[in-house]
Amino acid sequence: MSETGHGVDPRAAAAAPGAAPAPPCPTRRGVLAAGAGAGAAALLGGPAAAPAASATEPAARPGPRPAAGPAEEAPPPGLAPYAAYWYPDSLPKGAPGPGIVWRSLRHWTPESDPDLAHNTATVPLAPRFTPVPPNRDARTGQARIASLVSFGPTAENPSQGSPTADFYALTHWAYIDQLVFWGGSCGEGLVLAPNAPVVDAAHRNGVRVLGNVFLPPAAYGGDLQWTRDLVQRDARGSFPIAEKLVRVATAHGFDGWFVNAETDGGDSGLATRMREFLHALRAAGECAGLRTTWYDAMNATGRVGWQGALNALNQEFFEDRSGKVADTVFLDFRWTPQKLASSGALAERLGRSRHELWAAVDTESEGWDAPVRWDAIVPRAGEHVVSYGFYRPEWTRNHLADRSPGAFHLADDRFWTGASLDPSRPAPDDGWRAPATVVADRSTVSALPFACSFNTGHGERWYEAGEVVSDLPWNHLGLQDRLPGRRWVVATDGERPRVTLDFARAWRGGSSLLVGGRLTAPAAVGLHATRLPLTPSTVLELVHATESGPVTVEVGVATREPAVAGEPVPYTWIPAQAPGSGPGWRTARVGLSALAGRTAHGLAVRITPGGQGAVAWRLGALSVRDGTAQRRPARPAALTVDASARQDGAASVRLSWRPAAGPVRHHEVSRVLPGGARRFLGGTCGAALYLPAVPRAGRERAAVFEVRAVDELYALSAPARTTLVW
Fold first, then answer.
1. H or E segment at 406?
2. How many CB atoms lie within 10 A of CB 667?
3. In this model, does residue 472 exceed pLDDT 50?
4. Taking the model in full, what pTM does it have?
5. What residues are paired with 720 via a beta bridge?
6. Cα–Cα separations (whole angstroms), residue 463 to 18, 473, 543
7. Contacts (Cβ under 8 Å, ≥6 apart) of 236
8. pLDDT over 70, % of the chain
9. Of the candidates 491, 601, 490, 605, which has an alpha carbon nearest to the alpha carbon of residue 546?
10. How far is CA 109 from CA 113, 158, 256, 413, in A?
11. Which of 218, 235, 540, 587 is most buried when burial is the number of CB atoms within 10 A of its CB?
């Protein structure tokens, strides 16, 4: 069954000539709502749901596919690396459809995986801190949020981004505790490892990422043998698949597994084996800090019966007599207020936190219009009952007719912040309780140097120093910056300007921050919550551009936090003078020696209009560093063309290199054209990159590639070079 929300995947149903076809698969949501053919009258406590789609009628229609860009010129098959997926051990009958590769996890090893270098995340999980919330309803230390996201199909999900800007470029990490890389289907594979860009972006913001283990209902193509394969013991009495899951997570660099056993027909013996498997998985992964989340499906009888609660039937998968089994439990959509209250109480009787339970909130179809009884989870008055998990919040992209990056981020800001688009001034409760009004935001900006170019991880072009160095659309979450968590806190006594992430122009990457509108008074825009130590040599730099309306710019540095939630951040304002005039980019450098010995708790900008007309002001980059001379990062080495294939005057290429010693934020790969110009091709936090279609430039004899290391201040190393002879 397809778990991507795109209905039946024709690849999963198609078979090679002469082979028995793989079983057809409906949408993942259809399974969750209908179970093994049952209705979902209790779903979220609402009216009865429509019947689940049949195996030949998709329950959700896909949106329009993006038009292929110039870099999508049908590369030769077999060279592109994709996110990894497997069956636990045995494979389906028949043959896989086009583009699908059936693999057994039991036989996987890192050494035999040709795509591992492209699928390995390298950014460590950053520590987080919690600033004083900007409104009084956002709680600290209570409910948390999980996000279950399908970033692409199970099969052929690119390892390192792709040449389109139409992508779910999640940026509101500040409100998320963990992300589940959602997917899996009976015709493609059941065990999914997250691709590296998602993990690298999440880790930079302190968010854990879990892979997905999905065992579908038998009525939708599931086979109980796959459950038995998962929990099999070997001759030593060990659980080989548990050991492989730990090895996959550590080799790929992510943080654990979401285990979803929905194949019915088992018995209490199989349930006992599953619980023992979870113990083994947790024990094997504990030294690596891996998490396990159990989905509320199989219960202690071995049968599947979605409880919508933690109760006597499923508590042994959370906590048993020997201790912790799973770190958290995702409670099915069938919860009620009474079930959640009793679940939280049971968790506490077991010696666990009630906030280790996630109540499912379905946003796949209706987004912020979804009917949710919020007071059952996160009441405005009193303690939060449990945590909650969004199912498919990428609705903010999927429902749009205009799926341009700017339109997507406006919708995504509305989802996470609320209708006011200002977490310090929440809109009256209109039925949607936006995360910014419920949980406190968190940040990882706690060490120097720090820089942000307001790059969201996708765009229509790539910019360097304000110049376009690639005019092709792209996405790669690993290149995303640590963006402001509170979007957008604006303080003004006049008209509130519009603050957006904008893609028409950028200093570096694909986007910049744009403040626009008629300003009738100074407007202060809150940026990052920080814990930055200030020294006599600390300097702050702004790269900005005034496109219309004269303005005066100041930077705000807060050396303390508000006394209570909801009070404004107490900034000290410093003029940010920049030489020159006109609409071009200018750099303002501000010394912070007067604040030496203190800690910066927040950063902001304040714009004062110099006239009565509309203003358009861009912030392209912000950095804070000690003013001592900065060395360029060391150069990577051994840039190599590992494999290539040519077709119709273009080549698909796999590159790899040896990273330089020292701290590196990411690497960027460029091509040197015959005239000497340099064109950006892509970037990655790892040390391998696939280029899908590099066209030959005129009659050149060889294509010249360069890779550079990029540090936290975006300084570039000297290049390592290699060539591909045509």
1. helix 405-417
2. 27
3. yes
4. 0.90
5. 707
6. 51, 11, 14
7. none
8. 89
9. 605
10. 7, 21, 18, 41
11. 540
